[in-house]
Amino acid sequence: MLSISFRGLSFKLLLNSIHTPLCLCTNCSIRRPPSVEGSMALRDDQWRNIIETCSGLSAGAISTVLLYPLDLIKTHYQIHEHTSRPYRNIGHALFSIVQEQQYRGLFRGMSPALYGSTVAWGLYMYLYHHAKSRYARYAENGTIKHSYQYFLSAMEAGILCVPVTNPLFLIKIRMQVQTALNTKKGSPGRVLPYKNFSNAFQRIVKEEGIAALYKGVVPALFLTSHGAFKFLAYEVLKKSYQQNVQSELPIVPTLAIGAVSQVFASTVTYPYQVVKARLQQGGIRASRYTGTWDCFFKIQRNEGYRGFYKGLSANLLKVIPSGAIIFAAYEQLHKMLTKLVFES
């Protein structure tokens, strides 16, 4: 009898003195004895779902905490149009934010970003694993054969995540770009529109209606292609490495593959991110856009196609380490939890 405690819940695994070697890989041809296979299959699936979710949650949290200032600078770049003092480069953006809002300004909106990233990655990895498993069940050898199935699995996971995560990321962007009020000399002090995550949520619902939490949902749905391109690239590169170099994926190749996959996906889908940020920023600047397509055409007309790639350099500086950290953290945590649960 093996008892494992997970966040206060006790899960007991009955081994029943099994002497036949068991393989826990989903693709292995070794089968459990009939007496055990039926009773253990569902429990194994449940454990794998827990492992996927916990690995995704942790990877998202780690990446957000380490790289949040770059994410904030990227968002400021995306919405910083038609201003008297446009940012000239990343260094100027960083200096301006620190000068106007002090160093604390670099971490404004971090709490909803942390909520959003942890929830998004945990839910995403659970749904992605579930979709991949479904495609694998229909394959002859129990493994995904075609690369497009990775793309479709990631698209499915992303679309199902949007209704949950869009309000979280909208609040994150609102808190990132809100500017201090009463900044003139002699004013009693600076008053921030939103005090914290819960205050922002309550005020948005009260002042703008619950539908306001889903502003930018259309480009967010388009942005599910970002995750699809990223996981497609990651799975293909990972599979190629395992087939041509070694089956074990060390941390350094994982970092490299994750970074390349993230750069590829971010460059392809970046215009969607700009449109989404413009729609979600709130205030007077957001009111000049009546919807997704209106925002798209106005950016193209007023700023040219370069407007769709504002902040790309800052974004790439963020996503290169982000992709590396997220996938490396995910793989290491996944390996550790799998060993803890199935091999202990």
TrEMBL record:
Gene Ontology, cellular component aspect: membrane
Transmembrane segments: 112-128, 148-171
InterPro entries reported in the protein's UniProt record: MCP_dom_sf, MCP_transmembrane, SLC25A32-like
Solcar repeat windows: 47-134, 145-240, 249-336
Metal-binding keyword on record: no
Keywords assigned: Membrane, Repeat, Transmembrane, Transmembrane helix, Transport
Chief location bin: membrane
Membrane topology of this protein: Multi-pass membrane protein
Biological process annotations from GO: nucleotide transport; transmembrane transport
Localization (cell): Membrane
PROSITE patterns: SOLCAR
Family: Belongs to the mitochondrial carrier (TC 2.A.29) family.
Name of the protein described by the UniProt record: Mitochondrial folate transporter/carrier putative
Source species of the chain: Albugo laibachii Nc14
Gene name as annotated: AlNc14C260G9798
